[in-house]
Amino acid sequence: MSMPQSKSDFIFATRTREFRAVNSLHRISRRSPFMPVTPVSKFKLGVAAVLLAGSGAAAGVMLSNQPPAAVPLPAVVAGPAAFAPAVAGATSLADMVEAVGPSVVQIQVKPRSARMQQMAYGDAPGFGGQLPGGLEERLRDLFGDALRGRGGESPFGAPGGPDAGPQDPRGGALGSGFIIDASGIVVTNNHVVGDARTVTVQLSDGREFDAEVLGRDPQTDVAVVRINGKGGAAFKAITWGDSDRMRVGDSVFAVGSPFGLGNTVTSGIVSARGREIGAGPYDDFLQVDAAINSGNSGGPLFDTRGRVVGVNTAIFSPSGGNVGIGFAIPAHMVQQVAQQIVTNGHVARGRIGVGLQGVTSEIAGAMGLETAKGALIAQVDPSGTASRSGIRQGDVVRSFAGKPVDEPRDLARLVAEAKAGSSVPVIVLRDGKSVALTLAIGGELAKPLVS
């Protein structure tokens, strides 16, 4: 099976006919911080889907978990002491799983939208009716008859087919999350609680608590929930790991509540880093082969020392089921977003007012560049801070605050993480020469497609 290479090959969908999820199709719409730029080329390598694993259903699931072999571990990052295996070289994760289990929760959501509730029941064919924004027509233009699956249904439907599995008598959607503070602060995915009318958090011991959404960030698909009415109870919080130090081949394990079964553990490895799947301007996913299924969304991805290194968010699937290609938001991004939500109730991002384009080998050759790396400034907003800082159309940004910029999404994340009002040193290539500039960082702008 070929992995799609273009953003058009990925569709985000959430369907929970059996657990009455929020919706039959949820396409994450993340407002790009950049002016739209026509790409140099686009590849289409077949029908595929990235399914949001927030909730879903299938009639039956066979669980199997073989413990991974011991691997060299990265250095422990500063913070609370992480779990350490009692026996050097031990391959069992049982003690570790037992230690982190109380920090993982199931999230039950009742939606606000009657339309979303109807789509959850699967009353309409395929995705529950017409796809938003004319997406179905676009998919048909790209893939033709291949868009239709068995029985005339869309291949992007729920795992197991539209009528598989029981329905949750309580109604609503199911997802996962994890506690980041003993006071009852929980991190999950935005697509899990984005349409929530009510939220209930269930602990691994079966206790349930009402909760409220503190804030959401659709652009990174991160949300923060607070448990209410805990009666003075203290909750067990996770320990954060360093996702930047995770390497391809490192062992990981996912914990969540697939199909509403309760805490379930699956293991695997990091298959790739820095995956861009077309979800938004800040794509930087860890790709893992640990089984991630509907209901796992928002659950933690742990390293072998019991530290959270990611949030399980999506799967790639041509058939609607798990095929060993899952995606997790890196912990470093989740931490930054969650901290802003807890502190301010929202996420503030830096903006500079430019439109970007990647540097292809053809562009590099035409501009006399030695390597096809960097972020090409395709457009400059005259009212933006980049223009006032001396950035010109045609510049290629290669460094931002001392960090390398190899492609546009690198600059997108770095600018977004920068504090509004600050000044950052940048290096651009202009007319074959390196030019050092001091770039002023602006705040959120009214123009939706300018960063």
Automatic annotation (TrEMBL):
Region entry Disordered, spans: 150-173
Keyword vocabulary terms for this entry: Hydrolase, Protease
SUPFAM superfamilies, per the entry: PDZ domain-like, Trypsin-like serine proteases
Pfam families: PDZ_2, Trypsin_2
PROSITE patterns attached to this UniProt entry: PDZ (PS50106)
Keyword RNA-binding: no
Positions with biased composition (Gly residues): 152-163
Gene Ontology BP terms: proteolysis
Any one GO molecular function term: serine-type endopeptidase activity
Keyword Protease: yes
Domain PDZ: 341-432
PANTHER family (alphabetical): PEPTIDASE S12, PROTEASE DO-LIKE 8, CHLOROPLASTIC
Protein name per Swiss-Prot or TrEMBL: Trypsin-like serine protease
Species the sequence originates in: Sandarakinorhabdus fusca
